Amino acid sequence: MSETPQPAPNRWRVLALWMTGIAMVGTAGALLAPSQPAPDRARGAEPVELGVELHAPMVAARAIPSLAGLPEASTFSTIPAAPHDATADEVPDGQLVHPTTPVPVYDQPGGAAIAVLPTTQLGSDTWVPVIAKEPGWVQVLLPSRPNGSTGWLSTQDNTLTVRSTTDRIVIDRATFRLTLYRDHQQIGTWSVGVGTAAAPTPAGRTFVLASMIDAKQKFSPVIFPLGIHSVTFSTYGGGPGTTGIHGWPTTDVFGRPSSDGCIRVPADALATLTNPIDPVPIGTPVLIR
After folding, report:
1. May I ask which residue range the UniProt record assigns to the signal sequence (predicted)?
2. Catalytic residues
């Protein structure tokens, strides 16, 4: 890889470098050409109802005159007021929501707007897992810092598309294994590389944020950024330190701590995750333990 100084990279150019798990701050501009998002061929795209028992009165959303002053809830942002995920050891049930227009994120049902959830993330449609429901509201995982950030979205104005998936990804850092479940059945399990003691893969529940293809890099044909960040590095190569799942060109990294936080998977694992007939959808819940 050349490290010749180049103009400052844009978000697309630096993200594939972050996924290598190697912090090369200040040199990413010469490494990658603009990337393209992988097709979002998600399973279970049929709309489903956001069912919730009406055990309490519906709380109306506050009127928001403008979203312009609110930060975007993305992998590039920090939302200090975001509620923390209180049950980070349980995999969400697989219900996902997509904003059809940028929507406000609230700190509680009927509370203050703390961010804006955009319609796309890194070139893929935004799909976030639902972790709790109240009448007229859903609580979702956010891709922002700090890790474990959540927020509430109003379901009262028809701005959310809903679908569900039975896919789950579980990453066990102690045994260096990634397991894919579908319809409560194990589809595959693989030995993977995880973060070192100095730069561990962050624990908690998160989700597949996007699917990216970058022909200019050689370590992975597809990269899956997750909605979680390095707990050691504030940046990978000038980006926000996004942790992800990606391939690796050599096998010596599997079955041991070998990255700066990302999950390095073998080629057959990546092929299963990207199967063109039945790929893992954007928004798939991921549990890292």
Report:
1. none
2. 246, 262
